[in-house]
Design brief:
The structure is a homodimer.
Chain A lengths: L13 H15 L11 E5 L2 E10 L5 E2 L2 E2 H15 L2 E13 L4 H18 L2 E10 L7 E11 L13 E4 L5 H10 L17 H6 L6 E5 L5 H13 L3 E4 L7 H10 L13 E4 L4 H9 L8 E6 L7 E4 L5 E3 L13
Parallel strand pairs in A: 5-6, 10-13
Antiparallel strand pairs in A: 1-2, 2-7, 3-4, 5-7, 8-11, 8-12, 9-11, 10-12, 13-14
Helix pairs in contact in A: 2-3
């Protein structure tokens, strides 16, 4: 293991898994740390609740399509959704650098409040810390959430033939951050996809029964999320390159910069694994929801059991989509 | 209101209240933000749960008697206890500066795991972010917790005659941080009081019925906590200087440095407001608990209704203990 923390330890890929397994899992001794989900599920009364946390360190804190506050609320809402839960309560912990403009704090808090009003989620407890100038980069926010797990959601083991849905174009958040962070001189009609996805739980209702697993492709993008699912399930994944929704702006900007959009973050998309034969039905339900009109079935699980992700390419070939090693774009969330 | 964030906005005093009221309360629109408690209480099934968050930015991250990890776990455990809850689950969100020694991360995580084993509290979900060198000061940790509120705990309005208990010597954490942060050349046999206080809930059991309110005197110390209680309740407080437990080391170090220990943080003490006539009974129960052998009744509520805190001094006088304005010692937690 490395002797010091590197940026890649925060990228959500192999190095992050190292820290989690060798340090946090070891000392905290919680078996479900092996679990794929970003949320822990506990029982209270006769019901199940999900509990999840995320700290946000995005740079810059204001970007096309949002700011760190929107990201913090949507990010934790979406992590609760991955556990099949209707998000209820959020906490918000602010670490603010001395000298941070009060006006910007107003803007960030207002955005957070707006997403709450829109979704019915409540920020019910908070904390404010200020550190001396130079000890933090403007503003960091932690949000931790509690959600009520739908009685219809029962995650199940995936099997060959199960279908893979993504609810919209990939890499829009990562590409937006790229454009805003570096002075690239590229003009583009593109904004971050950052948005709350709790409508998926409401929209699917009883049909959640056909959903086997959900995961949001944030850090490390679609490629990393699919690899995590394949590794955990020990079943191979095949995705069809032509079916992956991607805006032409994302494609051309990534081309110019030599970035692979498969590894760039989305912040308002969900990967939904659906039982074999139910893909089309779930697809139609999701398509009607806000933020989800570009929903597509992008692939399925195959009868291979190596836990690998394959892509059927445009020209008909097949290549492995490897797990991310090292760093691609730090501080996107 | 100020145009930029100052260190005093994170000190827990009047300036922090300004930010909470003028920004967070305004946009998040949650009426219980006016509440005194650090924890939000919600119902699930037939039971009540408390939910609270805290980010930790203590400097230095290793100090006599603990480190940022111990503080992060104990701090949130104790905030849950203030709501009369048995702490159950914690989340842990790490923001780590690039280059942070892996060995230190092991030490911090091990301490967190140790407090969990000792208390039965579980860290069930986490998050790891890494920021580039210079963008954070070593390590920040957010912990957010869920606790089960005791069926015997029913916070009530305080009345004249209600008694005020503190569970041990004040200002030991703040004074320890002072000694370790600045190279003061003072040798002292003193460590931070940082410790988990969930045993108070177990130890009091049915006797929690006589407890009207609990609050931990962290940022801003005993003076700030008592002022918050007095202001919120609109009842005057009288504390007896001679009864306030304080180690001689704390007294002499504060004397040398010209600091008022009434405003320095404790991280393992609880202020317990007990119904008139029950002080002695509760005192005896608390005294038997770990970390609580110096428990004392330090004062009571009087028949004044100005929400002020008075201290009966050693020589028999009476003076106002004012609310903290500006900053005294930043980044103690």
């Amino acid at each position: 293991m490395d002797e010091v923390i590197k940026l890649s330890h925060g990228e959500g890929g192999a190095d992050t898994q190292d820290v989690i397994k060798n340090i946090f899992y070891r000392y905290f001794n919680e078996p479900h740390y092996n679990d794929l989900s970003d949320a822990y599920v506990f029982e209270a009364g006769q019901k199940k609740y999900s509990f999840t946390t995320d700290s946000f360190v995005v740079k810059p804190i204001f970007f096309r399509g949002g700011n760190i506050g929107k990201l913090a609320v949507c990010g934790t809402i979406n992590d609760l959704v991955t556990a099949g839960a209707i998000p209820l309560y959020l906490s918000a912990g602010f670490i603010i650098e001395e000298g941070f403009p009060m006006e910007k704090l107003h803007l960030v808090a207002k955005t957070m409040g707006d997403v709450c009003k829109q979704t019915g989620v409540k920020i019910v407890t908070g904390d404010t810390k200020v550190v001396d100038k130079g000890s933090a980069d403007h503003l960091f926010i932690n949000t931790t959430g509690i959600g009520l797990v739908s009685e219809y959601y029962n995650p199940k083991k995936v099997e060959p033939g199960d279908e893979i849905i993504i609810t919209g174009g990939i890499a829009e958040h990562g590409t937006s951050i790229l454009l805003d962070r570096y002075d690239l001189g590229i003009e583009a009609d593109l904004i971050s996809d950052c948005s709350p996805l709790c409508n998926i739980i409401h929209g699917l209702g009883r049909n959640l029964r056909q959903v086997k697993l959900m995961k949001d492709p944030t850090r490390g993008g679609l490629a990393t999320a699919l690899n995590e699912i394949a590794t955990m399930m020990g079943v191979d994944v095949e995705v069809n390159e032509q079916m992956i929704p991607m805006k032409s702006e994302v494609k051309s900007i990534c081309n110019i910069l030599g970035m692979d959009p498969m590894y760039l973050a989305s912040e308002g998309r969900m990967i939904i694994i659906v039982a074999k034969g139910y893909g089309e039905q779930i697809l139609q339900l999701i398509k009607e929801l806000n933020h989800c009109n570009e929903t597509r079935i992008i692939g399925h699980f195959t009868s291979g059991y190596h836990g690998k992700v394959y892509m059927k390419t445009w020209i008909g070939g097949k290549r492995i989509i490897p797990i991310l090693e090292g760093q691609i774009l730090p501080r996107i969330c």
